[in-house]
Amino acid sequence: MAKSNKPIIWGTFAAGGEVVSLVTPVIILLTLLAAYGRIPAGLSYEHLHAFAAGWFGKLVLFVVVFLSLWSQAHRLRITCFDFGLRADGAVATLFYAIAAATSVWLVMILAKL
Amino acid sequence: METIQTDVAIIGAGGAGLRAAIALAQESPKLRIALISKVYPMRSHTCAAEGGAAGVIKDNDSFEQHFHDTVGGGDWLCDQDAVDYHIHEAPKELMQLEHWGCPWNREDNGSVAVRPFGGMKIERTWFAADKSGFHILHTLFQTSLQFPQIQRYDEYFATDLLVDDGRCQGFTAIEMKSGSMRRFKAGAVIIAGGGASRMFPFNTNGAIKTGDGMAMAYRAGAPLKDMEFVQYHPTGLPNTGTLLTEACRGEGGVLLNKDNYRFLQDYGMGPETPKGQPVLKTMELGPRDRVSQAIWGEMQKGRAVDTPWGKCVWLDLRHLGEKKINERLPFVRDICISYLAMDPVHEMIPIVPVVHYMMGGIHTDTKAATSLPGLFAAGECACVSINGANRLGSNSLVEILVFGRRAALSAAEYVAAAKPGNEAALVAQADASQARIDELFARSSGTESIAGLRKEMHETMGDGAGIYRTQEGLAKTSAKLAELRRRYQNIKLHDKSRVYNTDLLTALELGNMLDCAEAVAVSGRERKESRGAHQRLDFTARDDDKYLRHSMAYFNGLEPPRIDYRDVVITTSPPGVRDYSGEKK
Amino acid sequence: MTDNRLAARQIELEILRYDPEKDQEPHFERYSVPCINEWCVLDALNHLKDSIDPTLAYRWSCHMQVCGSCGMMINGEPKLACKAMLRDYPDAVIRIEPLAHFPVERDLVSVADDFMDKLKRVKPYLIPGKVRVPTEGEYKQTPAQLKRYRQFAMCINCMLCYAACPEYGLQPKFIGPAAISLAHRYNQDSRDGGRDERQEEIATNEGVWECTFVGACSEVCPKHVDPAAALQQVKVASTVDWYLEHFMSWVKK
Amino acid sequence: MSRRPYVREVPPTSWYFRMPRYMRYMAREVTSIFIGIYTMIMVFGLAALAAGPERWDAFLKALQTPLSLTFHWLALAFALYNSFTWFNVAPKALPIQVGEELMPDIVVAGGHYVVWVLLSLFILFWAGVF
Ligand SMILES: Cc1cc2nc3c(=O)[nH]c(=O)nc-3n(C[C@H](O)[C@H](O)[C@H](O)COP(=O)(O)OP(=O)(O)OC[C@H]3O[C@@H](n4cnc5c(N)ncnc54)[C@H](O)[C@@H]3O)c2cc1C
Ligand code: SF4
Ligand code: F3S
Ligand code: FES
User: What residue ranges do the domains of chain A occupy?
Assistant: First the structure.
């Protein structure tokens, strides 16, 4: 039996897991504030755009979103398996393809900012 | 019946059996090895040993000291040539285990650490926390997995040896999962079947320790030696018999009677040592037989503690403190909490002496050969006479290694010269063995229950063959056992399914225990002296003139065994006085 | 000594019975067994076998939580029967089944072949890094180095973790918690140099990658081996390996 | 003499009802659905940001629908659950040994909580909530 190639995704899963655990709750909290119309100063267009346009902002956004994408894709794959969807190959292809496509899109967005 | 052909077959995959198998695989790589065990190897009772294994390695120690501790501890009933071999091989074997990965405790500089043990003048016990036997067994088992020559037959129950032409040439065994019998045809057979303490009502042994190996050899004509010497361990839990390791006392635990008095000083093991600072070979670190006998003495004098489980004395660990107990004796704490619902950090532990170890067993010479050609034996089932009348704690985990390997070397040598056997005669014997089992299944007239007979055996062994014995008690027990062995011929099997039939296996085990038990009682009845673990109220002194000899019990069908004697081998240490009174001397 | 400990109790044992020579499939049977509160479940079974039904088959030996024979499902949880104390089961009925996820040989006896094969596959023995012969003395190993693997060496092979791990139940090819933990035990040993060989078995899809970190294995382990931790550590190390091998092969060469 | 080991199949779609601990595990698994969707929302948000102020405002508006509110509350709950389970098990993957002793799990897990609180406060501060 050959060694597995799963580490390539698992690496992003583990790193993503750490990042997501640390920052996602607070980002969702901010989104909720915005959703209630109490948009904090930092989320105004000017502020956020200025942040996202800088190289540091781009880097942070890329790392957070990219890792989150891949780690959730990987976890969704396992979740499907655990719920009894046994077409693991197809499921994996689907989620990883979405993650890959979104990653490309993300890069394009960041490039435009 | 299917036949399994092999060069060397080993019955028993505990410490001794596994060590033998590895030695064969490494040192005679061409041989085929069959390793048979009624439980998966790592379930063998070696896993229960807690304290450790003795071997000289530190600079302050010497072979002479290990030799003298062992021979004196055995009340001079040891064969000194065997002891000599044992102590010299001991450090090599323990070092070999280290090289196989055994997680021995270490000193800060990375070398192996040793701890003190009862009856030893110098600390020389290698240990792996309070799980030494467990780690030894798993290290051996896991190491054995790398040798393809070792063919394992797990959960096979050996029933009878096959002997023709005066030589042992194999045995029959039941494959437990199917219930079918197999014939193992082997150039040589090594028995490493472990002890037999389950014949007593109250013991530290696992359910598998029913003396099957001893009984098989005994029935095939090999004598059982020194069977009257049964070791009581001083500190067992009064309800389950679970052992609390000697390391409890090695680490500084003390024994108290109901007046909170350290009574060992009244039994020649004083003077009292400061609490928590044990002194070797003194007080709580006296040998097992003496300490157990002292506890019995307190009970007789009415100074024991009454508990719901009967008379006990206290083992007090409280002064060691929670940290030390967790560090050094974590398992002891777990066991007390589980089985007594009490925590030794805060409460004293009630303890009683429990049957622990059989010094006696299949007679072997220093090469682990029995008196039946082609049959070798090692481990607790064998009696190579390094333990004499009382085993020192931490000698037997070494014995299983040293003599496990020794048996392998002898067997390999023997196989090289073995002649082919008479096939027809062996097949006929195997068929007879099968017929015996089939008859049990077919029998509808049986009236005796297995559990019932076992209970009666337990009662009579406890009554007549306990810590202190008398002529009358031993005679009564011998007679009772003869009766039970006759009644055993009429037992009834309830379970008639062949698959994993534990009813059948317990029946066979009971038969084996009864055979061994009778050897214990009759050998004891004939030994009219007190020595080591064999203490008689009617003959309180040691009698070297008459009994500085090994007793040899020969199987005699349904009749009681014939007892014979054999001289003890004495090389350098003439019989002396066993002194455990600190530095008083 | 306070003593409701010794209180007598009547307990209903509901036991899964299966005799392949008679039964098409397993069924429950109920026994009323007189017990003592300070007993463990194994004591109750032994009493049942001795005085009520001698045909019941189950494994046990040490009665001290170390041989690993007596694993069974007790009220749905994988437990050692000799560690499951009756006082912790206040209900009148206790339900006992053979270990989950293993085929039933008979009654409470499960088929352990699969575990034994897997154990052997992961090479759980010392493959020395620098070979030394015993006459040269011991490999030096400091207490700190000992500590790095000792916990993983405590496994008694009781297979409770396999009965708890749902991924093993769903995918029986999974090498499983105990075997991988034992491989890890040797990988972590300062004397060992066999990690590469073991990785061939455990860094595979059937190996550690079948584990989704459910963590049930560690919750049921009676010896605090914490197999879940071992498996995560193996995953981290295998991932580092993979990245080194594929993206930074020059590091090694 | 007939062995006939009986195999009890594990029901592939309902096994997790068997034990509470399996339900807890599945709850952790389910968090990935919410966090996954939320990640996509983030990407859409960024796209809106890149597309200019009107699109950004439209995005913020879209967040105010009841469906979005419900989702975000749920997402927050699941994300918290995810974070806590992650922190609690994090020590297992990377044991840290100081001298002889292994760092107790509680220290490593506790460290995670501390970092999490500080980081969250920092982000809130940065976003101008205080
Ligand atoms: C609780 C306890 C603590 C101990 N502590 C120490 C200690 O600290 N230091 C020390 O030196 N000693 C100690 N001892 C003693 C020591 O552990 C044993 O004497 C030793 O382990 C025996 O090993 P063995 O290989 O001979 O037998 P075992 O390990 O008992 O193995 C016997 C083997 O024979 C097999 N077998 C038996 N009958 C059959 C059959 N009919 N068919 C097939 N196979 C069969 C079994 O399956 C098993 O594999 C302790 C003993 C106990 C009980
Ligand atoms: S890891 Fe724990 S539960 Fe699993 S087999 Fe080992 S001791 Fe048993
Ligand atoms: S329960 Fe199973 S999935 Fe992994 S963490 Fe334990 S092996
Ligand atoms: S009987 Fe040995 S672990 Fe329970």
Answer: 12-112
3-state secondary structure of B464: helix
Q: Which residue has the tokens 């007594």?
A: B340
The torsion of the CA quartet B175, B486, B560, B373, rounded to 10 degrees, works out to: -20
pLDDT tens digits for range B180-206: 999 999 999 999 999 999 999 999 999
Tokens 């015996």 label which residue?
Answer: B436
Instruction: Give chain C positions within 8 Å (CB) of D94.
Output: 233, 236
The complex scores an ipTM of 0.95
> What is the pLDDT averaged over residues A72-93?
92
Q: Which residue in chain B has the smallest CA separation from D3? A: B178
Please give the residue range of the domain that contains residue B495: 426-567
Interval C201-217 mean pLDDT: 95
Residue A3 φ/ψ, nearest 5 degrees? -65, 150
Q: Which of C41, C59, C60 to mutate to test ligand 4, by most ligand atoms within 8 A of the CB atom?
A: C60
CB contact under 8 A, A8 and C246: yes
In chain C, where are the structural domains located? 8-110, 113-246
Rounded Cα distance between D97 and A23, Å, is 27
- Sign of the torsion angle spanned by Cα atoms C207, C212, C215, C216: negative
Four-residue CA torsion sign, B576, B577, B581, B583: negative
Give domain status of residue D76, yes or no: yes
Q: Is C227 in the pocket of ligand 2 (CB under 6 A)?
A: yes
Tell me what pLDDT residue A113 has.
84
* D117 and D70 within one domain: no
What SS3 state is found at B205?
coil
Q: C-alpha distances in angstroms, B20 versus A107, B298, C44?
A: 66, 43, 37
What whole-number distance in Å separates Cα of residue B528 and Cα of residue B547?
8
| Pair (D76, D101) in one structural domain | no
The answer on B465 and B549 residing in a single domain is: yes
Third-level CATH fold of A12-112: 3 helical TM bundles of succinate and fumarate reductases (1.20.1300)
Summarize the confidence of residues D4-21 as an average pLDDT: 93
E strand spans, B29-136: 33-37, 53-54, 114-115, 125-126
pTM: 0.96
Q: Is the pLDDT of residue B583 over 50?
A: no
DSSP state of C99: P
Give me the amino acid identity at B581: S
